[in-house]
Design a protein that fits this description.
It is built from five helices and 13 strands. With 219 residues, the chain is an alpha/beta fold.
């Protein structure tokens, strides 16, 4: 498997590259079909250099969707260990889920004849939260916002290209990226939706019914 290591704000030593190569063997054993792993190390200093940390991001590429994991720590070697553990856990969960689905079919089931979706909760998005964000009651800041703009309630914005997929595929993607939720466009309804993890292998999905904006927001 090809390995690529880059540093942002930090030099990558031969020792760190050697440790990465050792860790990659573990990932290869769990994902033998993976073709490439990208390791990005970002060093940040806060409060005039009095506080520093390193973020290690792992991106595994192969047949199928990307698999990502990241960790933050004051020591980049420790952050690497944590990120590798997260990635390994995501790979194990995805494998267990595939095996469990084959042996004990359950979870979301779509009945083509009736159009009924079973085994997953569907509920409307909260209009109150949408209103509070739209009116600025809940502040929205970008990824580059500085610490001086911090408020107790902050929404950090990341933008991705929209992807159309089924609820079942969205659940699989959520497991692979190791998040508790995954945003997508439902291929069956064209509605913006998000799946989220509940207990065990139980999941929920929230779909947004699109409509014209209220007059006070459109102006």
């Amino acid at each position: 498997m090809e390995t690529n290591v880059v540093g942002v704000g930090v030099n990558i030593s031969d020792r760190f590259r050697s440790v990465v190569e050792d860790k990659v063997i573990r990932i290869e054993n769990l994902a033998p079909r993976a073709q490439r792993i990208d390791v990005k190390v970002t060093h940040r200093a806060y409060h005039n250099g009095r506080m520093e940390d390193s973020t290690v991001e792992l991106t595994l590429t192969g047949k199928g969707p990307l698999i990502r994991a990241e960790a933050v720590d004051g020591d980049k070697f420790t952050a690497l260990d944590i990120a590798v553990d997260k990635l390994a856990e995501q790979l194990r969960r995805a494998k267990e889920k595939r095996v469990d689905a084959r042996n004990h079919p359950r979870g979301a089931k779509f009945e083509k004849g009736s159009g009924v979706l079973e085994g997953i909760d569907v509920e409307p998005a909260s209009a109150d939260v949408i209103r509070r964000v739209a009116t600025g009651e809940i502040p929205v800041v970008g990824e580059s916002a500085g610490d001086e703009e911090y408020t107790p309630v902050v929404i950090r914005v990341k933008r991705f290209d929209a992807e159309w997929m089924t609820v079942e595929d969205a659940v699989d993607r959520m497991e692979l990226v190791g998040h508790d939720f995954f945003l997508f466009i439902d291929a069956r309804t064209d509605a913006p939706s998000v799946v989220y993890r509940r207990k065990g292998w139980d999941y929920g999905v929230i779909s947004l019914a699109t409509q014209a904006a209220p007059a006070e927001l459109a102006s």
